[in-house]
Amino acid sequence: MRQRSASREGGFTLLEVLVALAVTAIALAAGLRAAGVLVDNAERLSEVVAAQWCADNQLTELRLRRAFPGVGDVDFSCEQLGRSYRGKLVTRPTLNPSFRRVDALVASEAGVPLVSLSTVLGRQ
């Protein structure tokens, strides 16, 4: 039978330790990247939802006025969740003159388009 040397028993070589550290570092880096992507997605979702509330509020206000909208573009601004948004109501005629199509386009303060919401309003 062969005997092991006393210094080799129960230990790891420097190469084995370095490989284990490299694998751990790669796994941690991948985990940090995934966490960063999740945070970015949550931020984007929050911004889009707030912009959609702005658009929906503008279209609801038009419905509640019960006035037939004129054709044209109207700019508006909105604040939701502590952020400012710029928007535009775009009113266009339809084939039926008793109806108008209204699009609410909302962008971030920097001008990045976030959401577009449409409805059709009729004469009362």
Please summarize what this structure is:
The protein is α+β, with helices and mostly antiparallel strands. The chain has one helix spanning 14-65; strands spanning 72-80, 83-93, 99-108, 113-122.
Q: Keywords for this structure?
A:
single chain; about 120 residues; alpha+beta; Pantoate--beta-alanine Ligase, Chain: A,domain 2; 4-stranded antiparallel β-sheet; 1 helix; rod-shaped
- Strands, count: 4
Strand content: 25-35%
Rg from Cα: 30 Å
CATH fold descriptor: Pantoate--beta-alanine Ligase, Chain: A,domain 2
User: What is the total domain count?
Assistant: 1
Report the CATH superfamily. Answer: GSPII I/J protein-like
Task: Give the topology string: H per helix, E per strand.
Answer: HEEEE
The level-1 CATH class: Alpha Beta
| Residue-averaged pLDDT | 90
Ends apart, CA distance between termini: 101 Å
